[in-house]
Amino acid sequence: MTTALRARALGRSYGRRWALRDCTLDIPAGHVVGLVGPNGAGKSTLLNLAAGTLAPTAGTIEVCGGRPGDGPGQLAKVGFVAQDTPVYAGLSVEEHLRLGARLNPAWDGALARERIARLGLDGAQRAGRMSGGQRAQLALTLGIAKRPELLILDEPVAALDPLARRDFLQSLMEAVAEHDLGVVLSSHLVSDLERSCDYLIVLVDSRVQVAGEVDELLAAHHRLTGPRRDPARLPAGQHVVSARHTDRQTTLIVRTEDPIHDPAWSVSGLDLEDLVLAYMDPQGETGPRPTLEVRR
Fold first, then answer.
1. Residue 246 φ/ψ, nearest 5 degrees
2. How far is CA 156 from CA 53, 82, 112, 129, 135, in A?
3. Residue 217 near residue 275 (C-beta atoms within 8 A)
4. Residue of 50, 15, 17, 56 whose CA lies nearest to 35
5. pLDDT of res. 296
6. Would you kindly state where each structural domain of the chain is located, as residue ranges?
7. Computed from CA positions of residues 62, 68, 73, 76, in that sequence, does the dihedral angle turn out positive or negative?
């Protein structure tokens, strides 16, 4: 499996405060990867380190086979749309395209202009007078038209209304299909990840809690409900992700590749939101959680 991003003991501090610390991570190439975690987990810091807009304080990071920000060749491999889909308020759409052509050696002007026309954006309109959805589409166009190997999107749709968010994600998936584009998408909106991502990473306190292809992760996780019992009594192959108890009942989220034969349990599947929340939930009563990765 080729790797789009590899981090080893990666950290970034601001004085005495660590925004990201001891992060070890592998993101495979050729996927639309959803990166999710609670506020403060280090997602935005990780993505800015990957884009080369920040330098690490500790550890190493490699993106598309090179060090982020290490010269024009490396910069050309990565497209980055930061939070709030930043564009220049005083520049028109056309001026953004001309700037993109000057700054990016592999710039695809035909692709950019075709997208702008298809989206119905006015080339003379200044970005500061556009709607949030239009600005997001402009930022996405700039990211795609530089023809990167990896496109990094940090909460690009968080401030958009549901219709604009749907249109943005539809445009993204069309670009992935047309241009063989790898994507890392950070989002708090699990419904967006369900529609767009085929690979999931949950990051909590700078550490990967679970990583793998979405279909395989969902197939390997189950909800068990039954009479109250100690999770430590489960078979060795059943890894407890989270546990909740009432006086008489226990509900567990477990990861296992083996069949569950115990008739005392009622077994059901999870959706993606269930899976994400199980790994993010600080109220889990399971002690340290294993770092799990599903591989092909």
1. -110, -175
2. 17, 7, 19, 19, 10
3. yes
4. 50
5. 40
6. 3-205, 214-293
7. positive
The alpha carbons of the chain give a radius of gyration, in whole angstroms, of 21
φ, ψ of residue 10 in degrees (nearest 5): -75, 140
Token pair recorded at residue 200: 């999931």
**With the CA atoms of 46, 50, 54 and 60 taken in that order, what torsion angle do they form, in degrees rounded to the nearest 10?**
80
pLDDT tens for 126-173 read 999 999 899 999 999 999 999 999 999 998 887 788 888 888 899 899
Cα torsion 279, 281, 285, 287 to 10°: value is 50
Distance, in Å, from the CA atom of 99 to the CA atom of 200, rounded to the nearest integer, reads 34
Q: Which residues of the chain are under the pLDDT cut of 50?
A: 285-296
Give residue 284's pLDDT.
54
Strands 58-63 and 182-186: unpaired
Per-residue pLDDT tens over the stretch 103-118: 999 999 999 999 999 9
Q: Which DSSP string corresponds to 170-184?
A: HHHHHHHHHHT-EEE
Taking the model in full, what pTM does it have? 0.87
Fold of 3-205: Rossmann fold (3.40.50)
**Cβ atoms of residues 31 and 196 within 8 Å:** no
Rounded to whole angstroms, what are the CA distances from 105 to 62, 256, 258?
A: 21, 48, 51
Please report the pLDDT score of residue 1 as a whole number. Answer: 57
Query: How many other CB atoms are found less than 10 A from the CB of residue 296?
Result: 7
Residue count of the chain: 296
Q: Is 182 exposed, middle or buried (0-12, 13-18, 19+ CB in 10 A)?
A: buried
